[in-house]
Design brief:
The complex is a heterodimer of chains A (about 170) and B (about 100). Chain A has about 170 residues and is mainly alpha-helical. Chain A has one domain. Chain A contains nine helices and no strands. Chain B has about 100 residues and is an alpha+beta fold. Classes of the chains: A mainly alpha (about 170), B alpha+beta (about 100).
C-alpha cells in the first residue's frame, strides 16, 4: 500500500464526520433557540451560524479531495458513482457549494427573501449526508448517533410551529 | 419532551438492531479460522488487493479492491475463505446463492 494513499484513506472518515457535525450544529440552532428562548449562549451561536455552515463546507471540500486522492482515477470514481453510498455524498456536496458561496453579508443583502429559500436546501443535503454515511459504511449506528438528535429537534420545531399556528388561529 | 418527538425517535430505533452487519456467517469453530495473512494470500492469488479486514457477523470482512479496480467490502467464510457477499459502497455486487 502506498503511504500517501493510506494517509488519505485514514483522514477520509474524520473529515466527513466533522462536516456532518458542523452542518448539524448549524441546523439545530433554531430549535435550540425555541427550546431555550432566554439563553444567551444559543443567541450567541445563532449570530455565528454562517461560520458553522462554511466550516461544514470546508470539511466537505477536504473530504471530497481526499476521496479523489484515495480513489486515484476518474475511471474508478465513475465506476462507483451510481452506488447509493456514493452519489448521495456527491449530491450533498453539490448542494453545499451555493450555500457556502452565498454565506456572506453581501449575498444576504442582495438576495433578500431568496437567501433563506436557498439556504433551506440544507435539509435535502442533510438527508443525502445521512444516506451517504449509512451506506458507505454499511453501518447505521454511528450515523444515527449524529442524526437522531437532529431529527428529534426538527420534529420538535415542526410540532411547536404547528401548535403556535393553531393558537393564533 | 413532546410526544411526537419521542415517537419520531422511537420509530428510528428498531433499525439500529440491524446495524450489526451486512451478513451473518454460519457459526464456526474459532480454531479453524483462516489467519488474516492466509486469507489475504487467498484473495491476492485471485487478483484482489487487500487493504484491511475485520471480523463481522462471524465472517471475515475484507476491505479491498477487486481485480477490475472496484473498491469493495467482501464477506468471506472464515474457514474456507469463500466469498459470500460483495458490497460496493452500499450496492450489493454479488451474493452467494444458498
Amino acid at each position: 500500500m502506498e503511504e500517501g494513499k493510506s494517509v488519505a484513506e485514514g483522514l477520509l472518515h474524520p473529515t466527513g464526520e466533522f462536516s456532518a457535525r458542523f452542518m448539524i450544529i448549524a441546523m439545530i440552532l433554531t430549535p435550540m433557540r425555541m427550546l431555550f428562548p432566554g439563553s444567551g449562549f444559543w443567541r450567541w451561536m445563532m449570530k455565528r451560524r454562517r461560520y458553522f455552515g462554511v466550516a461544514a463546507f470546508g470539511y466537505a471540500a477536504f473530504h471530497t479531495l481526499l476521496y479523489i486522492i484515495d480513489m486515484g482515477s476518474l475511471r474508478a470514481m465513475l465506476g462507483e458513482f451510481t452506488a447509493l453510498g456514493i452519489w448521495t455524498g456527491w449530491a450533498a456536496f453539490v448542494i453545499f457549494i451555493p450555500l457556502a458561496i452565498t454565506s456572506n453579508d453581501w449575498s444576504l443583502r442582495a438576495m433578500g427573501t431568496a437567501w433563506k429559500s436557498l439556504q433551506r436546501w440544507v435539509y435535502p443535503a442533510a438527508v443525502f449526508t445521512l444516506l451517504h454515511w449509512m451506506f458507505v459504511h454499511n453501518d447505521i449506528g454511528p450515523a444515527l448517533v449524529h442524526f437522531v438528535p437532529l431529527a428529534g429537534l426538527e420534529g420538535y420545531r415542526i410540532w411547536k410551529n404547528k401548535t403556535r399556528t393553531r393558537t393564533i388561529a | 419532551m413532546p410526544r411526537m418527538t419521542l415517537a419520531a425517535i422511537a420509530a428510528l430505533f428498531p433499525s439500529v438492531t440491524l446495524a450489526t452487519g451486512m451478513y451473518e456467517c454460519e457459526p464456526s469453530n474459532r480454531a479453524e479460522w483462516l489467519s488474516k495473512d492466509a486469507l489475504t494470500q487467498q484473495f491476492e492469488a485471485e487478483g484482489w488487493t487487500v487493504r484491511r479486514m475485520k471480523e463481522d457477523g462471524g465472517c471475515w470482512e475484507v476491505y479491498g479492491t477487486m481485480p477490475d479496480g472496484k473498491r469493495v467490502e467482501a464477506y468471506a467464510d472464515p474457514v474456507t475463505g469463500e466469498i459470500l457477499l460483495i458490497n460496493q459502497r452500499g450496492r450489493v455486487l454479488y451474493q452467494k446463492e444458498d
